[in-house]
Fold this sequence. Notes:
Four copies of one chain form a homotetramer. Chain A is an alpha/beta fold. Helix content of chain A is 43%, strand content 19%. Chain A has helices at 16-29, 40-46, 79-91, 103-114, 139-160, 175-183, 198-210, 227-237, 258-276, 296-301, 309-318, and strands spanning 3-9, 33-37, 49-51, 96-101, 118-123, 162-168, 188-190, 216-221, 241-246, 282-287, 290-295. The longest helix of chain A has 22 residues, at 139-160. Chain A is elongated and about 70 Å long. Chains A and C meet through α1, α5, α6, α9 and α11 of A and α1, α5, α6, α9 and α11 of C.
Amino acid sequence: MKRIGILTSGGDAPGMNAAIRAVTRTAISHGLEVFGIRYGFAGLVAGDFSPLTAEDVDHTINLGGTILYSARYPEMAQEEVQQKAVEQLKKHGIDAVIVIGGDGSYHGALALTRHGINSIGLPGTIDNDIPYTDYTIGYDTACETAMDAIDKIRDTASSHHRVFVVNVMGRECGDIAMRVGVASGADAIVIPERPYDVKEIAESLKRSFAKGKDHGIIVLAEGAMSADKFKDELLKYGDFDARANVLAHMQRGGRPTVEDRVNATKMGNYAVKLLLEGKGGLAVGFENNELSTHDILDLFDGKHEGDYALLDLNKDMTK
Amino acid sequence: MKRIGILTSGGDAPGMNAAIRAVTRTAISHGLEVFGIRYGFAGLVAGDFSPLTAEDVDHTINLGGTILYSARYPEMAQEEVQQKAVEQLKKHGIDAVIVIGGDGSYHGALALTRHGINSIGLPGTIDNDIPYTDYTIGYDTACETAMDAIDKIRDTASSHHRVFVVNVMGRECGDIAMRVGVASGADAIVIPERPYDVKEIAESLKRSFAKGKDHGIIVLAEGAMSADKFKDELLKYGDFDARANVLAHMQRGGRPTVEDRVNATKMGNYAVKLLLEGKGGLAVGFENNELSTHDILDLFDGKHEGDYALLDLNKDMTK
Amino acid sequence: MKRIGILTSGGDAPGMNAAIRAVTRTAISHGLEVFGIRYGFAGLVAGDFSPLTAEDVDHTINLGGTILYSARYPEMAQEEVQQKAVEQLKKHGIDAVIVIGGDGSYHGALALTRHGINSIGLPGTIDNDIPYTDYTIGYDTACETAMDAIDKIRDTASSHHRVFVVNVMGRECGDIAMRVGVASGADAIVIPERPYDVKEIAESLKRSFAKGKDHGIIVLAEGAMSADKFKDELLKYGDFDARANVLAHMQRGGRPTVEDRVNATKMGNYAVKLLLEGKGGLAVGFENNELSTHDILDLFDGKHEGDYALLDLNKDMTK
Amino acid sequence: MKRIGILTSGGDAPGMNAAIRAVTRTAISHGLEVFGIRYGFAGLVAGDFSPLTAEDVDHTINLGGTILYSARYPEMAQEEVQQKAVEQLKKHGIDAVIVIGGDGSYHGALALTRHGINSIGLPGTIDNDIPYTDYTIGYDTACETAMDAIDKIRDTASSHHRVFVVNVMGRECGDIAMRVGVASGADAIVIPERPYDVKEIAESLKRSFAKGKDHGIIVLAEGAMSADKFKDELLKYGDFDARANVLAHMQRGGRPTVEDRVNATKMGNYAVKLLLEGKGGLAVGFENNELSTHDILDLFDGKHEGDYALLDLNKDMTK
Lengths: 319, 319, 319, 319
């Protein structure tokens, strides 16, 4: 193996650049060449490649987004498209590829491996919804951004004795909502993976106001319900003032936190070492704070398990 | 004059606490007593008063929201309600009142003055929409919060070559949009006070993408159009990917900036000095960086003039 | 057990308030009463106690510092002082105590337990230097604050092609330096637990500048050497411009991160549950992301093990 | 005039990149070409020039530091060096130059103008110490950074009932100290331009502690005294615990605030327009919120006047 490629795929996430930097620097320090592939699998098939030096990734560890750009590219599921990708890689002398992205991107990584190009997948998504890992690159920054916003919203909620229903990202996964909810001192956390009772939440808010609390915060995972609808439901049972708030895309960007930079650096470094050992078709994760790998195939049957004990913890905080 | 009251009214804004602190400390250092009136004019009429000491406002200069709470209270327009307010003030020996709030709150301050209770109005609103002042308390923090959010959104816009239409607050006033638009390097700024041409904006975005720009940001004042509608209009003329984003209530909260803390402190200090000079019925402002006063009456006929040269400035940045 | 006490001891750390809140809310939700003990063990002996309600800890999860204040109190090592403490607790009907603080505070917690007052210790220090735990309350926020400062310093380092030697906190422990060093893309990380070679670091910086890098950052743990001395040593071998920078006490304060709020909440909740099970003399930690306990006695012989693999990881980033 | 040059000189300041961007975009939109001159006057003499396009300054408005790098270059005072600079400019067809920097850089700008190359100076320094302007590029961001740090320091000061003497930048100018002092609710502000009485400050702190205040903050301009010395002086008169803290170089970097981005954009835009009118030898400023110009010559005799009323204002806050 002399030359490896790296690409980012799916939604961008803070820390992707730290991972690109780690891959680049580690590979070069082990005598490999690195090519950046722009626009994910679309760029791979189109041959949008350019060499990455150690200097090219200077001043990138602190940047949100991805310097390699990203794109969704469902065409990669087709056999003939995969073959085109492999041809492009061979033409450029690239022996192996590291793919950073959400669950969709693992299919591409597996396809490349099956065509003889060893590929390693790194979990790059703010949603923390990948099986067999407790952590995905960008998750911590997204939580921090959401919490900062809620800290601000709480000021105005308190000044006016209002309830805010704050929709946070995460697609079908409630991890951002749970962690941000606990960190924000939310009155309730609503996620798609667990049942919830809007009436009970409204009653609990009424009790809080009666005891003198000056505001209410509901952290709502986007996969559970729309913020507007939830607010309307809530107002059926409560006589308080309530507003809906959708934090949206700001959660995807911004300077990555220490946690995301360090973890992305560890993962990028590890991925190169796996390639150096001749491995491919693997997904890297963190389990109980340790780097781990699983066959990508296993991920397709697997299911991400959130830390649902956070829901009980939060209930102890709001009784 | 021995005892003054202070209240916050209308939407809360970062820096209101700095103004409350400045009023309290200045008054006490000039031998006056201070009473905090909670929940704005509603609390004034209900007699929700309590003394404020210099120590009570410790650790508040850095807090968003208002420690006196706020409320909208249209009933204050009624003569009999105003009389009740005056009775409450007399009952508590309060000779004068400082009111911090948006344009609605000036009516209450004028009514009190007319009933013999000298009152001074301070412009407390993030919207910067008050006549005869270049600045309102909270405006700078709201701009900073909006710009921070757009800096994050730009990361994801760039990673995906997307256009974001970002709705910022300001009601019918475009000041937040203009200042944040320039600071964010927006491709276009849309405000209700000036005409705009969606087609022209779409064409300009297309030219930018053609020249290699990797993203587009439109900063849209909430008073101009909804973000969703603007995005839909835009997509009639452009073939790019576009998303709508509403920053909403987080702009109202958060730790105030240096500018808001210093200006609020100056204004609160000045308001007490005006009362000590026996003045009432005045609105305090900043004009060309200097503290100024106007009869509150003049404000009702006046019109806030934004710095519309910012629109031309921004065009020079995007041609 | 009907009534428990809580105190913070030693240096303050962001997240202590989240832990106090969690202890208070959990205890109350399980039918216990909670007393806040101010000024650590000094206040315990002086009887500076007051009841804490669920409402008292509203609006505290987001505050740095400790609402219970802290103090160093070496007198607590004396038997007669310990007896006085126990008398105070008995007088107030307090059956058990939760102590949040650095390693010094564990001695006090153990002494109380030996005198029949079950006590649980929570690791509250930014230094991350407690045995048998991978994490201490405040560590993440301190790292984030240090990294933010270094991100700013890097701007000016780059503009002037300078090297900055940045001293970060941690006493004899290099954990902050290692994590912040990796996250900041430092050219070198210097900690007291491992040997380092100033000449080699200087040579490596010269090579970087020769390859076109525009700045250098050394992250130096305070326990290793003073920043000034290190800078002077460095300049013996390098002809570049170098400055020393000490981040100091700002690392101890500030709004806690998501990580610190969530972990402090988990730990505070867990500590109450341990007391409810009749346990005492235990130190709570996180090991491999799981809550764990150890006899406090074991901590005195134990040694905190840092994640020294971060040093090798960083070398792969700078070769 | 067909082609202009731009350089940054002296210490870097946040917002310099916004000014570079504004100069570049404005010039191009008016049909001019722009050359970036790297490393200030040193690069000017060495001919370190490269063309700047509108795209080159994309993604720079939000960056601290200066993408053109900076350097101190006292040699520029020599006539023969100035002639060399002029030769380089003529060789590259550059007709006029915009210089962004501190007071030293105005000498270079004037020298160029005298040699027939119209030059305009923009005040780029965090210190706010330039005559005939109320504002310099970077001043607002530096104040914000210092205030943020002090907000964090206050947490630990309060937890331990300590006094912190915090040294902020500004060289011989007290503007940062005054504005940050008011914004931080400092107990005292010490600047080199006005007398101060350490004993009186100590007495006032003692009175505050006696009244129940839990901390003390002194904001000290670096030009007044060293923080360590001030702390030692203070402890001669007070029996409290006090620490010295030097914020140092982090104040020079970081993402610029809204204020700095907007003002730098206005100034860069205005400088190009002055050149288009055939003007040179001018320094741009903001006076009472309006763009203004003065002959650079006048600056050498002028003296920056700070807003010293802030000292009295702060006294009203601490009596």
